[in-house]
Amino acid sequence: MLENYPSNMTGEIVLGALAPHPPHLVYAENPEQNEAYAEGGWETLRWGYQRLARKLKTIDYDAMVVFTPHWQTYIGTHFLGLPHFKSKSVDPVFPNLFRFNYDLTVDVELAEAMHDEAANSGIITKMMRNPDFRVDYGTIVSCHLLNPSWDKPIVTISSNRNTHYYSAEVMNEQSAALGRACKKAIEESGKKVVLVSSHSLSHRHFTTEAPLPEDMSKEHIYNHSNYVWDMKLIEMMREGKMKQVVDILPEYTEQTIAETDAGAFTWMMSALEFPQYPAEIYGYQSVIGTGNLVASWDPNEQTRELVL
Ligand SMILES: [Fe+2]
Fold it and tell me: Which of 86, 103, 195, 245 lies 20 to 30 Å (CA to CA) from residue 138?
């Protein structure tokens, strides 16, 4: 009986993942969907992703909800709103690395539920119903590395550019409100959902590329200051101080030009009610000088692990 009435059940967020999206990581994996060929590279991050992907295979979930910095909207927050998108995604900065043929499904019911709940709470929202819309590479890279079989539907949420239009403080408030609305919508949907915050940490990067992009003898963090900031954040994540992390995000974002400017991390932490338990750390490495962390927050004490 219950199976016929999923909306009567209580939905939940079963995992939150910090999933950076340098196209280099997909390039280095050589999946059949990507046209470029690599000799490897960035193994610390890719092996960390592979371990997190194996954990995800052990978790029962209905959909993955991704908040991405590379679908940038200036009027409101937008949600993917058609059941199927298929096209080629080309990274505008690294077309030499990433020309990915994607074919993905969307949980439109869940997208509409989050859209409606956000709208009811006063957030400006819109459903993306254009069949020719090209899904951004942030969504594709993070989803591919977390679930290479693409056997779960996704929902992508756009980044409303509050940091740049107003300030990082305004972004923190707005994305926390969006996180609360999405959490409520997920609970009322009866679905089990994985949240994905798709971005790097510190984001200063080199402006020239090595002749061989995967030449790991050329890869290092952009500067020591960014490294120290990233390590401070990771230490606080280990200690379960997520409210404090979000409180210092505006300063962190400004000091390290961090990709937390997009609001994804605050959104996810707000939806998870600012965890006071330790994050699972899967790997940290630089990509063209940026700081990237693969991590997750597992609300289930029975399955939460000390990974690294
Ligand atoms: Fe990015």
Answer: 245
Q: What average pLDDT does range 167-179 have in this prediction?
A: 95
Please give the pLDDT value at position 198.
Answer: 98
CA of 80 to the centre of ligand 1 (A): 19
Which pTM value belongs to this model?
Answer: 0.96
Which pLDDT score, from 0 to 100, does residue 90 have?
Answer: 94
Q: How many whole angstroms from 190 Cα to the centroid of ligand 1?
A: 32
The three-state DSSP-derived secondary structure of the chain is: CHHHCHHHCCCEEEEEEECCCCHHHHHHHCCCCECCCCCCCCHHHHHHHHHHHHHHHCCCCCEEEEEEEEEEECCCEEEECCCEEEEEEECCCCCCCCEEEEEEEECHHHHHHHHHHHHHCCCCEEEECCCCCCCCHHHHHHHHHHCCCCCCCEEEEEEECHHHHCCHHHHHHHHHHHHHHHHHHHHHHCCEEEEEECCCCCCCCCCCCCCCCCCHHHCCCCCHHHHHHHHHHHHHHHCCCHHHHHHHHHHHHHHHCCHHHHCHHHHHHHHCCCCCCCCEEEEEEEECCEEEEEEEECCCCCCCCCCC
CA of 16 to the centre of ligand 1 (A): 18
pLDDT confidence bin for 8, thresholds 50/70/90: low
